[in-house]
Amino acid sequence: MPKIEVKNPIVDITGDEMANVVWEKIKNELILPFLDIKLVTFDLGIINRDLTSDKITYEAAEAINKYKTGVKCATITPDDKRVKEYKLKKKYPSPNGTIRNIINGTIFREPIILNNIPKFVNHWNEPVVIARHAFGDIYKSKEISVKKKGRLFLRFESFDKKQVIDEHIYDFPSSGVALSYFNIDQSIREFALSCFNFALNRKIPLYLSTKNTILQKYDEAFKKIFDELYEKKYKKIFKENNISYQHRLIDDMVACLMKWSGGFLWACKNYDGDVMSDLVAQGYGSLGLMTSVLLSPNGEILETEAAHGTVTSHYLQHKKGLDTSTNPIASIFAWSRGLLHRSNLDKNKSLKNFAQNLERVCIETIEGGHMTKDLALMVGPDQKWINTNQLFTIISKKLTKLKNT
Ligand code: NAP
Ligand code: MG
């Protein structure tokens, strides 16, 4: 059987340590033998980022904007220890942050559900996808400590000096603390667009949570912008696809999260998303089964990756020539989801089939009892585990068999 032809390229971002070892195996054993595809590759490994003074990260992001699909391997975000370890010129920022700012998208985190892998929250049978608005709020706040009795104000002054708002906040009877934070309608609107497009794409209902009963201007702005977009642009098509959008109070939403069995997209404000994405990840059990997608507001540009890091502890073993049992599933799904996006943009049915088969084969392999150590430990003491190379051999054999039938 000939390889499946893919007309347009995808951007392939390579990374660091064990994640990168797995990444290369995915390309060589699960992608390139089956697809006639042009990969536009950027090496975002820490050594190359240092060599290029991080220019490579910007180039990679621009390329994703150009080709509209990117798949990314986990990369080291250097801390002081890494700066020493790699003798870096400086402590570069997280590549994910740089890329997100250029694509201006929203990050969606979605667990992969496997029947035989127990979850901490047993009845979450379908994914809870978390979207985090990544602008403003406490992350751009300014705080002060006050040491004396006194009066606190919040002041806005328009640049043309025509409008001044002076809000009296509080009279401090003694020492204390205060803070101020902000957001902008444009960023909230772009977040909402990404969320509506993601939900539509995946055909799952969307919920936005806020505390608009308390923050009647701030959180109400989120609700209002989502509501307006829904009414104007998405209500009809959501109905046609049998999905819905709803705003809920954050406290009501966390109760629903525990009660429901998953299968929805939860749009979270910045801090809520920070906290809830870790809570939900833990509820599903394994980092090796968590995927992450960055989607632009118009739904056209997509970058995918595994949510886990470079798995340093396994890399140390690998460098000693020892076999590791590193879970490649989330990284494989980064590829499958990227290819799926490419297939939708290009209307390439064979590619779509391949991407779906790749996911199905992974799920069947693990549900058939072949899995890495991290998952086996979750199943229980009797569950056998295999190493990464063995798992790849099984998956690639299954893919080859599918191709030839
Ligand atoms: P990590 O690489 O996710 O690993 C934490 C631990 O989780 C591992 O030691 C391993 O546990 C387990 N684990 C994670 N992924 C696994 C997989 N695929 N298969 C099996 N076990 C897995 O996080 P980290 O150690 O905090 O960070 C390491 C480096 O990754 C850092 O330099 C950080 O900057 C970077 N990082 C990058 C990204 C990204 O690019 N998106 C995200 C997070 C972190 P055991 O050792 O117990 O087996
Ligand atoms: Mg967090």
Please give a structural write-up.
It is a single chain. This protein has helices at residues 17-31, 46-51, 55-67, 80-85, 95-103, 185-202, 218-240, 250-259, 270-284, 312-319, 329-346, 349-367, 373-379, 388-403; strands spanning 4-5, 10-14, 35-36, 39-43, 69-72, 106-111, 128-132, 142-146, 150-157, 164-172, 176-180, 206-210, 245-249, 264-268, 290-295, 302-306. A ten-stranded mixed sheet has the order 4-2-5-16-15-6-7-14-12-13, sandwiched between helices. The termini are close together. The protein is an alpha/beta fold. Helix 1 packs parallel to helix 14 (388-403) and helix 11 packs antiparallel against helix 12 (349-367). It is globular, with a radius of gyration of 23 Å. Bound molecules: NADP nicotinamide-adenine-dinucleotide phosphate and magnesium ion (MG). Magnesium ion binds next to helix 9.
Number of helices: 14
Helix content: 40-55%
Gap between N and C termini, in Å?
9 Å
Kindly report the oligomeric state of this protein.
Answer: single chain
Mean pLDDT: 95
Say which molecules are bound, naming each kind only once. NADP nicotinamide-adenine-dinucleotide phosphate, magnesium ion
Shape: globular
- State the order of secondary-structure elements, H for helix, E for strand: EEHEEHHEHHEEEEEEHEHEHEHEEHHHHH
How is the biggest beta sheet arranged?
A: 10 strands, mixed
Uncertain runs:
none
Assess the beta-strand content as a share of residues: 15-25%
Neighbour order of strands in the largest sheet: 4-2-5-16-15-6-7-14-12-13
Which structural category do the helix and sheet elements fall into?
alpha/beta
Compute the CA-based radius of gyration.
Answer: 23 Å
Structure summary, number of beta strands: 16
